[in-house]
Specification:
Layout: E1 4-8, H1 21-33, E2 38-41, H2 53-67, E3 73-76, H3 82-94, E4 99-103, H4 112-125, E5 130-134, H5 136-139, H6 145-151, E6 157-162, H7 167-177, E7 182-185, H8 188-196, E8 201-204, H9 211-222, H10 226-242, H11 250-258, H12 278-288
Parallel strand pairs: 1-2, 1-8, 2-3, 3-4, 4-5, 5-6, 6-7, 7-8
Keywords: Amino-acid biosynthesis, Cytoplasm, Diaminopimelate biosynthesis, Lyase, Lysine biosynthesis, Schiff base
Site (Part of a proton relay during catalysis): 44, 107
EC number: 4.3.3.7
């Protein structure tokens, strides 16, 4: 259902932390003009953890309204409370999102059966395409392939963003799920290989900074052109790394700021990128060809 380079878009903020909706509108146009295949709003990179409930929905509405149906909009609606995730998913559907991305419940460490029941209840309750999101490095919760395979029988669960960082896990999911559920990479460093091994795209941090290149890389990989895929990805390799020199989205917000697309705001407990890391991020941006 969703394919290619799907940007996990940053949420622009002013220096005082207030949301900047004018900058968000500019950012959406930048991505559409650059070939981004879908926009994922208010995910981890969009600082969903520090947006309140009404801000969360307001960002989704703004992105949907600015996109005007030109590309899909996927809303991050996961939470560690099933009730909260259900309400966010319902509100996102009402706001016009084309799909929702639901991270595994964090901190409370549910069992695999608890994960199954969590996702099943939300999918049964809200008739919108839903993408599972497994990122054990952040959540302390790893959704096992057998649990994902059980969830593939639910019609409106259409994909999984797998961000364990393991290409072997991607291959296993592709093998287990077949045509029942799409697999997306959640790690830019292995996205090219993931797509060449059957994933349908990537939900990307790097695409915030190099959207055209990420779109072209994904298109080449989906076409099975390994040589072109690797040639593009090699230019992006240092950027994939540099954008995680500090916790996401600290480096990527600073990098997007260097493109004069957003102001420098970021919310505590995150802080601006350390001065000592600026040269490394700039060097990676130059190698990727996004700055001179």
């Amino acid at each position: 259902m969703f394919r290619g380079s799907m940007v996990a878009i940053v949420t622009p903020m002013r220096a005082d932390g207030a949301l900047d909706f004018e900058a968000l509108a500019r950012l959406v146009e930048f991505h559409i003009d650059s070939g981004t295949d879908a926009i994922v709003a208010v995910g981890t990179t969009g600082e969903s953890a520090t947006l309140d409930y009404e801000e969360h929905i307001a960002v989704i509405r703004k992105v949907v309204g600015q996109v005007k149906g030109r590309i899909p909009v996927i809303a991050g609606t996961g939470a560690n409370s099933t009730r909260e995730a259900l309400h966010l998913t319902q509100r996102a559907m009402e706001a016009g999102a084309d799909g929702c991305l639901l991270v595994t419940p964090y901190y409370n460490k549910p069992t695999q059966e608890g994960l199954y029941q969590h996702y099943k209840l939300i999918a049964d309750s809200v008739a919108i395409p839903q993408i599972l999101y497994n990122v054990p490095g952040r959540t302390a919760c790893d959704m096992k392939p057998e649990t994902v395979e059980r969830l593939a029988d639910i019609p409106n669960i259409v994909g999984i963003k797998e961000a364990s960082g393991s290409i072997e896990r991607i291959r296993e999911l592709v093998r287990r799920l077949g045509d029942r559920m799409d697999v997306y990479s959640g790690e830019d460093g292995i996205a090219a290989e993931a797509i060449l091994n059957g994933a349908k795209g990537t939900i990307s941090v790097t695409a915030n900074v190099a959207p055209r290149a990420m779109h072209e890389m994904c298109a080449a990989a989906l076409a099975g052109d390994r040589n072109l895929t690797e040639a593009i990805d090699n230019r992006l390799a240092e950027l994939h790394k540099a954008l995680f020199l500090e916790s996401n989205p600290i480096p990527v917000k600073w990098a997007v700021g260097q493109l004069d697309l957003i102001p420098p705001g970021i919310r505590l407990p995150l802080t601006p990128l350390s001065d000592a890391l600026h040269p490394a991020v700039l060097a990676a941006m130059r190698q990727a060809g996004v700055i001179g």
